[in-house]
C-alpha cells in the first residue's frame, strides 16, 4: 500500500474513532447536565396526601410486584437473609398483590418466549447485572406493576403509587435510579426504552461501570427518559398532560435534611460493583469538574487531529513539491553532462 494511502487510512480511522467517542462523551455529559430532569416531580408525602384526600385520580398500575434474584456467581448472593426480610416487608404491606420473583432461568425463558428478537442481545451482555436491568424493563413493559430492588423494603402500602402511569425515583443527585420503577402494561415509554437497548450494546468501554450504566443501567434509563420527553414535547411546561406523559419522578433524596421517605427503606446492596466503582463514585461527587475536563479534552483532541491532518497531508504535499524541484535543480547544476545511463535514471525518477 502506498505511503500516502496508508497515512490517509490511518487518519480516517483516527477521525472516525474520535468522532464516535466525542458523540458518546457528549451524550454522557448531557445526561449529567440535564438536571432537573423531565417529568413531574412529586414528593412521597404529596403522593400519600393525594391518595388520602381522594384527589389522586384513577389507580392504573396493576397490583403486581417484580423482584429479580439472579445468582450469577454460583456461590449464593450476599445479603440474602436481609434481602428476604426486606422482601417480606413489601409482601406484608401489599396484601392481595401478585409477587413475582424472577430467577435467571425464568428471565431468559420469558425473553425467548415473548421477545425473541432481543434474545441475542440478552445473551451477549458482558456483565450479568445488565440482564437484570433488561428484565426490569421488559417485565414492566409486558405486565406492568412496580419493580423493587432487593435492597429496598416497604414502609407503607404502595397503593397510592398505582395512580401514576409511569414513575421512577429521583435522588436529586445525578442520573435517575432504576431500583424502584412503576408502569402500566405496554406504556409507550417502556416500548421506546426496550426497543433502544440493542443499539447501546455494541460499544464496550474499558471501565465496567461506564459499560453497565451507559448500555443498560441508570445512565441509559435517564437518557431514554429525557429523549422520550423531548420526542413527545413533554419538556415544554405548556404541553397538555395526557395518558402517555409527562412521566413522574418520585423524590427520594438521601441527603441530610431532605424529606423523610414514606414508602421505602434501604438495606445493603451494590452486589454488582466492579473494581472501578470507587473511581466513579468520586466522579459523581465532582460531576461539574469532570464535565469541564471532558469538554477540554474533547477540544484538545479535535485541535490535535486538525494539526495531524495539516502536517501529514497539506504540509507534506508542499514539502514534497519543494524537494522534487530542489532535486531537479541540483541535478542540472552538478551534472550538466550525463551519460546515457545516468540520463535514463534521472528521467525515470523525474529529475530531468
Explain what you see:
- With 352 residues, this protein is of the alpha/beta class.
- It has two domains: 1-33 and 287-352; 35-285, Spore Coat Polysaccharide Biosynthesis Protein SpsA, Chain A (Alpha-Beta Complex).
- It contains twelve helices and nine strands.
- A seven-stranded mixed β-sheet has the order 1-8-6-7-4-2-3. Strands 5-9 form a two-stranded antiparallel ribbon.
- α1 (3-33) crosses α9 (218-231), α6 runs antiparallel to α7 and α7 (188-196) packs across α9.
- The chain is globular, with a radius of gyration of 29 Å.
- The two termini are 27 Å apart.
- The mean pLDDT is 81.
Biggest sheet, in brief?
7 strands, mixed
Low-confidence stretches: none
Share in helix: 40-55%
Taking the alpha carbons of the first and last residues, their distance comes to 27 Å
Average pLDDT, all residues: 81
* Main sheet strand line-up: 1-8-6-7-4-2-3
CATH classification, class level of the largest domain: Alpha Beta
Rg of Cα set: 29 Å
Shape: globular
Summed up, the helix count is 12
Number of domains: 2
Our estimate of the beta-strand percent is 5-15%
Return the structural class.
Answer: alpha/beta
What is the CATH topology assignment of the largest domain?
Spore Coat Polysaccharide Biosynthesis Protein SpsA, Chain A
What's the CATH architecture of the largest domain?
Alpha-Beta Complex
The helix/strand series, from N terminus to C terminus, equals HEHEHEHHHEEEEHHHEEHHH
Number of strands: 9
